[in-house]
Amino acid sequence: MVSNVEILYEDDDIIVCIKPAGMPSQGDKRGNKDLVRELKKHIVVEALKHKIKLAGEPYVAVVHRLDRNVRGIMVYAKTKRAAAGLSKQINGNKFAKIYMAVVSFDPDKEEPQIGVRKNKVSYLLHDKVKNVSTVVDEGTKEAERAELNYEVVKVTGNKALVRVELITGRHHQIRLQMSDEFNGIVGDTKYNDDYRNIDGWSGLSLEAVMLSFIHPVSGKKLSFSTSAIGKEFGEI
């Protein structure tokens, strides 16, 4: 483990880890500690430990991202060949990504149905200046199609644990589509007017809990999972 980054899998081509909430997926203008930098440190430490000589700075390529405040599983490429293979899968929507979110809803309205799998398609417009996205009508210029499946797993009070299968990967997609279906994700100050954390919840209540893909070199199917947010909600 490097810093507070948990390594789930590593070989010569890829490295799979759990990104902590609050840490950016890659370097940003703020110059804060980021996951790419931490993984490079990890590779250097492991090389020294096994007396392996590195030819310069380790190569760590970003092929997908998670919002800074989202905890969850990510894969990075350690070679250009692996980066190209992973990117091809992502562009073809071949990655299987599952998220868990805690959403708030109005208990005076209809309570969410447990165990009903629903498909949701929206069209999202990203404002890069304000770093927010909005739901717009189909056909709106520069809008991107966003699709996911979701299922309510458990309900407690005015909160629900929701399993989300991400089909497309758009800017703030889950956060925005959950705010369109419910009040929004607990702790989301951008898309949930009822954003204040209650009953001990802190931070954005969204986690990337499962990632499945084909190894870009070996061709083997790999799948990784975690379950922190489900356990916190009382779901085993």
UniProtKB/TrEMBL annotation:
Domain Pseudouridine synthase RsuA/RluA-like: 13-179
Classification via InterPro entries: PsdUridine_synth_cat_dom_sf, PsdUridine_synth_RsuA/RluA, RluA_PseudoU_synthase
Highest taxon of the lineage: Bacteria
Catalytic activity: a uridine in RNA = a pseudouridine in RNA
Family: Belongs to the pseudouridine synthase RluA family.
Family matches, as PANTHER family: MITOCHONDRIAL RNA PSEUDOURIDINE SYNTHASE, RIBOSOMAL LARGE SUBUNIT PSEUDOURIDINE SYNTHASE D
Name under which the protein is recorded: RNA pseudouridylate synthase
